[in-house]
Amino acid sequence: MKAIGLARYLPISNPESLIDVELDKPAPAGRDLLVKIEAIAVNPVDTKVRAPKDKTEEAPRVLGWDAAGVVEAIGPDVTLFKVGDPVYYAGSITRQGANSEFHLVDERIVGAKPKTLDFSHAAALPLTTITAWEALFERLGVSAEGADAGKSVLIIGGAGGVGSIGIQLAKKVAKLEVIATASRPESAQWAKDLGADHIVNHFEDIPKQLKAAGFEQVDYVLIFNDTDRHFPAAAEVIKPQGGVCTIVENAKPVAVELLKAKSAAFHWEFMFTRAMFGTPDMIEQHKLLSEVARLIDAGTLTTTLGRDLGRINAANLREAHRLLEEGRSIGKLVLTGF
């Protein structure tokens, strides 16, 4: 089968950083689905895993943790899906990724593809949606039934992949008042179109801008960009007994003592945790994706596809990595078909 892999960890400008390869078609066992891949999306985790380092792979390593496709075959213990079902999912970082014609994934972290979306628009959603959902509803404990309606949330990194769906979940599902950060007119408009009530610039003084918008403090803060840079501002603006959640690893110690006087909570969100550790509640991601598909089909949520870069091949995938590393992408980058 066709796939895009790597043998060495190189700068994306090097044509050997991601290469077209031929691999054996895998066979499903246990609760695995074998999925025929129709579309993939690219995330910052792909670029971080591929980042230059002094290491080589004996066999090609395949990246990619966002996919939509059709179930080709099932393992003997599968109960949630059957051959021919259209699905979407993010997969597990501990296994080969989905940048290949066929891919194995545990059914417990897979959802039925939204009926109203094609494969490209569906592939834009899983990883970022799981991340934003878990951060908002599981880590911060916000009600997904609207019981916290009217409370405020600051979303740092509003126009990125996670921010794009995070804004929608916070506004359209949780019924919160959403302040999102964006630094350019086009990214600010994107965030507003998705439901943000207010926009502030993350390159300027965030607490000062919030006060100008009428917010002395906010109930929740979601950091979807640069924890090191933005944690001090988050600690300053969070309400007493509020909560801060970040998805971005830090380069230096996080000054969590800034939260002590407010008895404010600090959370990490890593959407691969359940699959990585085989937690007993892995199936919650199947349930989550199924509920999001329902919300998509009901018109409550919309896809976050920003740009389709064409066919799934090494050249187009290298371009997607380059654009992500540039740090100015709006929404999700998708590739469709081999």
From TrEMBL:
One Pfam family in the UniProt entry: ADH_N
A GO molecular function annotation here is: RNA binding
Subcellular location field: Cytoplasm
**Keywords annotated in UniProt:** Cytoplasm, Metal-binding, NADP, Oxidoreductase, RNA-binding, Zinc
CDD domains listed in its UniProt record: AL_MDR (cd08252)
Domain Enoyl reductase (ER) per the UniProt entry, residue ranges: 13-335
Principal subcellular localisation of the protein: cytoplasm
Please provide, in alphabetical order, the Gene Ontology terms of the cellular component aspect for this entry: cytoplasm
Q: Which domain of life is it from?
A: Bacteria
Protein family (similarity comment): Belongs to the zinc-containing alcohol dehydrogenase family. Quinone oxidoreductase subfamily.
Q: How does it assemble?
A: Homotetramer.
Q: What is this protein called?
A: Zinc-type alcohol dehydrogenase-like protein
Record the organism. Answer: Caballeronia glathei
